Amino acid sequence: MRRLNLNLNLTAIIVLTAVGVLLPVMLATAVGIVALVIADDVGGIVTGVLVISFAVTAAGCALLAVVLTSRKARLARRQADFVANISHELRTPLSAIRLYAQTLQSGSVADDPEQIARCLATILRETEWLDVMIDQVLAWRASSRDMLTLDMQTRSVTDAVSQAVERFRAMSAPDELTLVTAMESSLPVEHDNRALNAVVLNLLTNAAKYTGADKQIKVSVRDEDAAVVIEVEDNGMGLTAAEARHIFQPFYRAQRHDGSDVGGVGLGLAIARHLVQRHGGTLTVSSEKGRGSAFTVFLPAAAAGGRS
Ligand code: ADP
Asked: Model confidence over 224-239: pLDDT tens digits?
């Protein structure tokens, strides 16, 4: 409803501008041109030039007003979408937690320790998802206001990556996916453990979200000359070249052609890239539609003498 109102307001402003400003401007320009053509003294020429200048200035102001209004409307629409999406995202794990807690409370599985363990494991997993989502929103708020402070330490990044992998395992159901790791890095990198952990966790959760039933994910860390490369690969739906160009923009979400929705707010990759750039590194994607994606974090190694 709110989106409809915003669209109507914008259309009304554009129509009003067209009728109320552009028509008089066109008339004034025509009058100015006629005045210039038939002018036979300096007064006539000055009048023609003044009328045309006025018309051009009015047209410029009207154009600026339309651009600013549509930008404001777009921003308001994004904020409304964001609130709706994040509410939906939070409700999904909350519903699962409620369902499993009610099952435990009802006593229907009281005699079955295996079922009890399964309910508790699901509750813990869903709580972990909630935690990750809230972290993401807070990180976005901090980074968009330039308030993100990093606690930089110089050491190998394998700890941060391993912690993200452990957290990701805790969020995934047993047998839900195949996760292969290859940690072959020893170069020290100046980094914030929590931030890097969040970057890798985001890439891993995306790898799981945007992959079909047979989820195969590989996370690797390796040294390359004076840099450390972290790669997260999946065998999922992949991206077209056009989609790959936009996925790091805040709030962008690629269209899913099968109509399904795995949920999301389109902030994870924007935050991840921002965090990697704050480390002087790059985050890129290489992907093929229908075959999978590989996200690569490239971090400069610390100068020789850093603590490993
Ligand atoms: P979200 O997952 O909440 O939508 P992200 O910023 O993490 O937000 O991702 C932006 C978009 O990039 C996703 O909506 C999805 O379309 C695309 N994407 C991200 N990771 C992958 C991946 N591993 N495979 C295919 N598409 C992906």
From this structure: 999 999 999 999 999 9
Residues flanking ligand 1, CB < 6 Å: 202, 206-207, 210, 234, 236-239, 247, 252-254, 264-270, 293
State in Å: Cα 16 to ligand 1 middle.
39
11 CA to middle of ligand 1, Å? Answer: 32
- The gap between the terminal CA atoms of the chain, to the nearest Å, is 56
Sign of CA dihedral 175, 177, 180, 183: negative
Dist. CA 58–CA 108, nearest whole Å: 74
Radius of gyration of the CA atoms of the chain, in A: 28
The residue type found at 186 is S
Q: Determine the residue of 132, 234, 243, 253 to mutate for testing ligand 1's pocket, defined as the one with the most ligand atoms within 8 A of the Cβ atom.
A: 253
Show the tokens assigned to 170: 């805790």
Block means of pLDDT (10 residues each) for the chain, length 308 residues? 55 71 80 81 81 83 83 82 84 92 95 95 92 88 83 96 94 92 97 95 96 95 96 96 95 76 85 95 96 97 67
